[in-house]
Design a protein that fits this description.
The chain is α/β, with parallel strands linked by helices. About 55% of the residues lie in helices and about 10% in strands. The protein is globular and about 80 Å long. The termini are far apart.
């Protein structure tokens, strides 16, 4: 067995230091990114800042590498945000003296649109610029998802609940062997709720069920870049022929095509051509088609003509299911149930942040040798927790409970001992302790000046009833969903 002082031990120590540095760097980037989102607004941030990937800091020059997926986006960010990003990083980290913005060295530059006379690409021309996948990438071993689609984003890896089951079932139907009853499928949901995951899953399954088929997956930004390049190069005929040769079209973040009249028109014609041939189309956006500003009516009509499947924010039960599913990757690391409950109840904005919080917590625990605990979660996830924490008031809790049980609001402070009002009052006290930072005496004062011991009794009673009484547990779960939505 190698000693820690030997080469193996030194390499392990170096790797652990690099991993810890990566975690800390990601935490700083989360803070900087959040600040830029407030300054720039959601649309600009999502389109240009969010895709940035962190590189390493050069200890000699103090240069931090920031990578973007395309040369177009790298140049755009460099021209408009380089100074702002540099200043933000200098404030966050004294060792950063400048930032370098470029295309990730592992990414190919945008390829030429080379087609055969029949409108198909050469069979050996792997296409990352438009993420085209299909017969061209099928070899003797079958389809390999190394181009365009993420191999981990499958239907099997997608965790379902009431919030997303409609979109999940519709996505499965879109990729099945039999022709779906609807096309296009429009997936609508807020950032980080699983739209992109479903797009990738559709692509994987479609290629398994449709031999020699061709699919096209891209973001609206990538569609715009390809469109502009083809226009400048006077190669629009080839661009159109290639685009319309696919059997399945998957376009993410369609909201970013807003206001681009010529691109909208080309997308409209492409949709019509593919639908006329019975091909399948799937779009994803953070808002409903009717809420897309600047989209011409004809394109809006095409986007709405199939099925619009809404992905609602994950409720607490779904959030817990997702966390438990991710834990299997970290076995045999122990994560107490109270930590899972805490993360699921606190990180509510989107699933991506929820999983990111779990990953950061586990990485920190592994790299520092600490046990995962509630205290560690509160200490290390302050940035994520503060961004997600919505302040629920006792007044809001009382109002919601009274509406749920159909009693008058005054009963929360009354001295009546009838069971019909005592039990809702105790539920409201329990929720006040669970959902607010208020102490027992503070909660008691909001319920007609009751003693703190009365509140403690109510909290313990409801906790016990939830274990023994399915109806009570159902009532509390329903109230929690209402208050946290």
């Amino acid at each position: 067995m190698a000693k820690m002082g030997g080469p193996t031990g030194k390499r392990k120590a170096t790797d652990e230091m690099e991993d810890l540095e990566a975690v800390n760097l990601a935490a700083d980037w989360a803070d900087i990114s959040q600040g830029l989102r407030k300054d720039l607004g959601h649309q600009l941030h999502s389109q240009w800042i969010k895709p940035i990937q962190l590189g390493k800091i050069d200890p000699d020059t103090g240069t931090l590498d920031l990578f973007l997926p395309t040369e177009f986006s790298a140049n755009w960010v460099k021209d408009r945000f380089a100074d702002r990003l540099s200043l933000a990083w200098k404030i966050a980290r004294s060792e950063v003296r400048k930032v370098a913005i470029s295309v990730h060295p592992g990414r190919r530059q945008v390829a030429d649109l080379r087609l055969h006379n029949d409108g198909r690409r050469p069979a050996n021309d792997a296409d990352t610029s438009m993420m085209a996948i299909g017969a061209d990438t099928l070899g003797d071993a079958g389809f390999t998802s190394s181009v365009g689609l993420d191999a981990s984003l499958t239907f099997a890896a997608f965790i379902t609940g009431e919030a997303n089951i409609l979109a999940f079932n519709a996505a499965q139907r879109m990729s099945a062997t039999e022709k779906p009853q609807f096309s296009p499928l429009y997936l609508k949901g807020a950032t980080g709720q699983g739209k992109t995951h479903l797009l990738h899953a559709i692509g994987h399954t479609f290629l398994q069920t449709h031999n020699r088929s061709r699919i096209f997956y891209c973001s609206a930004e990538r569609f715009m870049v390809e469109f502009v390049q083809a226009l400048k190069a006077n190669r629009m005929i080839e661009f159109k022929a290639r685009l319309r040769s696919f059997d399945l079209l998957l376009v993410d973040d369609i909201q970013f095509i807003i206001g681009k009249a010529s691109a909208q028109e080309e997308l409209l014609y492409t949709i019509d051509a593919l639908l006329a041939e019975g091909k399948r189309l799937v779009f994803a956006a953070d808002r409903a088609p009717q809420a897309l500003d600047g989209v011409e009516p004809r394109l809006l009509s095409r986007l709405s003509m199939g099925l619009v499947a809404d992905i609602q924010p994950a409720d607490i039960e779904l959030r817990k299911k997702i966390l438990h599913s991710k834990l299997s990757k970290f076995a045999p690391l122990a994560v107490p149930e109270d930590v899972i409950e805490f993360l699921a109840r606190t990180i509510t904005r989107n699933v991506r942040e929820l999983v990111g919080g779990l990953n950061k917590l586990i990485a920190y625990a592994q790299l520092t040798g600490q046990e995962v605990s509630l205290q560690l979660a509160e200490e290390q996830l302050t940035d994520i927790l503060s961004a997600n924490r919505r302040r629920i008031t006792i007044d809001e809790i009382q109002r919601t409970v009274c509406q749920f049980y159909r009693i008058d609001r005054s009963e929360m402070s009354s001295k009546r001992r009838a069971r019909a009002v005592v039990r809702p009052r105790q539920v409201a006290m329990y929720l006040s302790k669970v959902l607010t930072p208020r102490s027992y005496p503070e909660i008691g004062r909001k319920f007609g000046g009751r003693d703190h011991s009365t509140v403690i009794h109510a909290v313990r009673l409801i906790e016990d009833l939830r274990q023994r009484d399915a109806d009570m547990d159902g009532d509390v779960r329903s109230l929690l969903r209402q208050l946290e939505s």
